[in-house]
Write a structure and sequence with these properties.
Layout: H1 2-6, H2 27-33, H3 38-44, H4 46-55, H5 58-75, H6 89-92, H7 95-112, H8 120-127, H9 130-137, H10 140-151, H11 159-163, H12 182-185, E1 190-191, E2 198-200, H13 214-226, E3 238-240, E4 246-249, H14 252-261, H15 267-275, E5 282-283, E6 290-294, E7 300-306, H16 310-313, E8 324-331
Antiparallel strand pairs: 1-2, 2-5, 3-4, 4-7, 6-7, 6-8
Helix pairs in contact: 2-5, 5-7, 7-8, 7-10, 14-15
Length: about 350
């Protein structure tokens, strides 16, 4: 009896969904997105990228993939849409990831084919697969933000900030019309007065106030006020000049933050969160970890440089001696050579 009971066939198991193999070249991007199933990613994202792949050089295509992957990393710490109090970010936390992919690839298409904004609608409707296009248009605010991001309008839900887009395609100006300076059409990074090789993001390009990294800014401010984070000493990890330009040594300052906050994530993650705030001076190639040379010391210190004195000093930086003699134009990852005697 028992034997016959155990031998009874069970109910038929549901047929599993066939596994979808993501092409290896897109695997890092798929992991960075983290919002789409493999089959959705294959239908909504891969066709967009494959169109680009057919016309782009290998180097350009790899650069595009790296740009999108980095942008999705920033999107992971952003509650879309930005600057819209009361918006339910949970409703939009997946669709804006897709919007980031769309705006970056659409910008690439317009730039590559030297097409102006008159071609925007045609590019969007032909480049995006029907399933993805329908998904975006079901959310009119998201669709409008995509168009606003590409056309350069101010309110785009934070897409331009997260995507890292610093240029807008423009239709050719009528003959006899003088070109509009870039500074008039959109906020541009300000140039570091001491060195033309540096750029400082405009305040409008800083990260959303809810981004995790702002906790680190407040923690550093508190440490500077109460003296637990020394500055302007020969071996101090924080240096500030008379104009309020602040050097934060990496990783030491963020190891200090890790201990201070008893953080659940490692110091390296804190460094990345701070970098995503987009408040640091960077090279024209986008590197924000710079090297500072101390007086009477041959080795470089690497760190972030924050130009705005209001972030740490309430606009009134201390007048103590600044031990970082100069900054180099070399980004992190280049050879550690002895700092030159003259300022960069």
């Amino acid at each position: 009896m028992l034997k016959s009971w155990f031998s009874r066939p069970n109910k038929a198991a549901p047929t599993p969904t066939p596994a979808t193999a993501i092409p290896p070249i897109y695997a890092p991007l798929f992991r960075a997105d983290g919002t789409l199933r493999a089959d959705q990613f294959e239908r909504q994202v891969v066709p967009i990228l494959e169109q680009v792949r057919k016309v782009a050089s290998d180097a350009d295509f790899q650069a595009l993939l790296a740009t999108i992957t980095a942008a999705l990393g920033r999107a992971a710490n952003t509650r879309f849409p930005l600057d819209r109090p009361g918006a339910d970010y949970r409703r939009f936390e997946t669709i804006y990831n897709y919007a980031v992919i769309v705006v970056i690839t659409t910008q690439w298409w317009l730039h590559h084919h030297k097409r102006g904004l008159e071609a925007l609608e045609d590019t969007l409707t032909t480049a995006i697969p029907a399933e993805g296009l329908a998904r975006l248009k079901r959310e009119p605010a998201v669709w409008q933000d995509i168009r606003a991001c590409i056309t350069g309008e101010a309110a785009d839900g934070g897409l331009r900030q997260v995507a890292g887009i610093h240029w807008q395609p423009a239709a050719p100006a009528p003959s006899g019309t003088p070109p509009i300076p870039p500074s008039v059409s959109a906020p541009q990074p300000s140039t570091n007065k001491r060195c033309e090789h540096f750029l400082t993001p405009h305040r409008s390009q800083w990260a959303n106030p809810l981004t995790k990294g702002w906790v680190l800014v407040e923690t550093i401010r508190e440490g500077l006020r109460d003296g637990s984070l020394p500055y302007n000493r020969k071996q101090a990890w924080v240096q500030v000049d008379r104009e309020g330009r602040t050097f934060l040594q990496v990783p030491e300052v963020f190891e200090w933050c890790y201990e201070r906050l008893d953080a659940e994530v490692p110091p390296k993650t804190l460094v990345n969160q701070f970098g995503r705030l987009n408040i640091c001076t960077r090279t024209r190639k986008g590197q924000n970890l710079l090297r500072g040379g101390r007086r009477n010391q041959k080795a470089y210190q690497q760190g972030f440089v924050v130009e705005d004195p209001n972030l740490f000093w309430d606009g009134e930086p201390p007048a103590d001696q600044f031990y970082i003699r100069h900054l180099t134009r070399h980004g992190f990852g280049q050879s550690l050579q002895s700092p030159p005697d003259s300022a960069a």
